[in-house]
Amino acid sequence: MPARAPGRTAVRDRLRRLTAGAAVSLMVACTLNGTAPAAASADVPPAPAYEDPALPVDDRVEDLLSRMSLDDKIGQMTQVDRGALENRSDLAAYRIGSVLSGGGSAPTPNTPQAWAEMYDSFQRTALSTPLGIPVIYGVDAVHGHNNVRGATIFPHNIGLGATRDPGLVERIGRATAEEVSGTGIDWTFAPCLCVARDDRWGRTYESFGETPEIPSAMTTLIDGLQGASLDAPGSILATAKHYIGDGGTTGGDDQGDTRLSEAELREVHLPPFREAVERGVGSVMVSYSSWNGVKMHGHRYLITDVLKGELGFTGFVVSDWAGVDQLDGRQGFTAAEVRDAVNAGIDMVMVPHDYRRFIELLRGEVRAGRVPMERIDDANRRILAKKFELGLFENPYTDRSYTAGIGSAEHRELAREAVRKSQTLLKNDGGVLPLDTSAKVFVAGKNADDIGNQSGGWTITWQGGSGDVTPGTTVLEGMRAAASDPSRVVYDRYGNGIDGSYDVAVAVVGETPYAEMEGDRPGSMGLDQEDLATLSRLRAAGVPVVVVLVSGRPLDIAGQLGGWDALLAAWLPGTEGAGVADVLYGDHAPTGKLPMTWMRSAGQQPINDGDGKEALFPLGHGLTYDGTGPDEPGDPGDPGDPGQERCTAHYRIVSQWSGGFQAEVTVRNDTSAPLDGWQVRWTPSGALTIGSAWNAVLTRAGDTVVATGSGWNARLAPGGSTAFGFTATGSPAVPAVSCSGG
Ligand code: GLC
């Protein structure tokens, strides 16, 4: 099944094949861009090389580039929001190469069919240009195809980080790619590989975790999105974002300043991008933030020298939304800002509105010699290569075979599985959970019966919103479906009506939707007054209280925790709230592990694993129902027999090449107490020369290699884990490894 419906090039090729050598004119029914059927004759000119899919991509790129004017090339570097086009024909007139839907920028009606029609219409316009270069269309499908009503909305990244399941995340990538493909769209601005170091940051929920290992592990999303090859059916282009250090700003200030040494920046924020590049991510989006006071959108060293040079990134770099405008700190963009951003290594600029002015300014900078033509050509090579690899020239239109699968039962079941696996049980006194299906349950809280609240930001609109925003199952609906008698599950948002006749009260509370800077919480990080009042009512009834926290981050709840019998972090589950009920009623035991250290108070922020601060719950904390897992916080736990292995090491080959390989070793603390000073040892099967190593110090003791933690990860929280890696020459045979600690 072709990835998309045949387009102009395929039709023209058929035309040539039909008429090749023929002495007669043939009336071939074909529509090029919707025009009337065109007469053909044997004198059809030979197809230009770039239209020949049998040629290597590089050859096609060079041929096409040789035919392009400066305006053609600048157009390819221009990305506009769908709503910014004053008229559709500007797409062709200005040779614009990319369109995006910013958060919530949707057609009316907001249906999959309308999206597909819109996409195909843009494509027809783009293909009407002399060179017929298709557009590439990008959206923020960051937890499913979340702009589209009816699409499956998966848990946000913080919940997926709690699963510690890269295979699940890859499957989510695939399902998301299929739903995006069903609307024609070619490209998602995901995954966010941010390492959130300060939970006050409004984008904490877009992070898989506070250490580089968790986002690095979850780069499997890229494999799911991009598939076995970009032109395979259902594959779309992925984006590693936001390069670099977006999650490390001082105070968690969105778009703020990340003040770190280069060594710290490389140790904490670079590994996920290295992993993404190794997985072949097609694009990288630059961060709004700064590094030590220098805006990333103008950072030539980090974009060109490190990302493209050192890491060998061969895809294209896209700016963030009007990110170029921020370089001089003033409203709007100038020729100098355009020049500096493009010369720093940005290949495509998400303008996204005043495209005429952008094109005019960049043209002026090139003609003045302030932006070298080599830079323009390099940007075009990178962009065009991805368009060829995506198969857009051969099959530019929507593959409608995926449209019906948007919001499918299969995808919703996958999302429900992800919700279950993300549930993180932090407290469970007296085994109040799981609930008995026959129990008389009082449910309260603003997040119990609200699809919008449980989905969070980037859902249908940019900021998201409360209410019935898209089809799905709320937590309450899931609970009633799980109960043997739904009428015994009573709901009142505010807790009015609760009394001692109930077996248990369940309060589903937390945050309401937000995105980006709107979610920054530089002050209080506690529950709002409504939730606190609701909880008071429930507690006054004298029944056990289970709290389900629907939030995009850890919250400051230590002061209330003593009055709760159980606490389940549900994160932002998305449309399949029944996955929360699956855990509450014990159909599935909770397996989630904290992807972020949980503060004792907001005053501790930033608080991260290994920083010496006393957390309420450590990174990696998570209980289950069989009584295993770490004990209550503060409990020293069983130090374990010093003689027994208190940690487990898992060694895997990440990649190998002639004569060399890269390995990754995951180290897990198997005790319920912090583990200091772990060591991993192995004896290679043959000669081994270590090249580079990260996140551990590797030494030799005779034939044995000894790896120890590199400072920030030398201490593992109870149940916590870390990973280190290295490159080496020698045999990639997997050795037996042993782990010891403390
Ligand atoms: C936003 C975000 C970025 C998103 C882009 C396009 O401002 O920073 O994550 O991909 O704009 O919507």
Automatic annotation (TrEMBL):
Residues 619-645 are annotated as: Disordered. The keyword Signal applies. It catalyses: Hydrolysis of terminal, non-reducing beta-D-glucosyl residues with release of beta-D-glucose. The keyword Phosphoprotein does not apply. It holds the Pfam family Glyco_hydro_3_C. Keywords: Carbohydrate metabolism, Glycosidase, Hydrolase, Polysaccharide degradation, Signal. Residues 640-742 form the CBM2 domain. Transmembrane segments: none annotated. Gene3D superfamilies: 2.60.40.290, Glycoside hydrolase family 3 C-terminal domain (3.40.50.1700), Glycoside hydrolase, family 3, N-terminal domain (3.20.20.300). GO terms for molecular function: hydrolase activity. Its EC number is 3.2.1.21. It comes from the Bacteria. Belongs to the glycosyl hydrolase 3 family. This is beta-glucosidase. It comes from Streptomyces desertarenae.
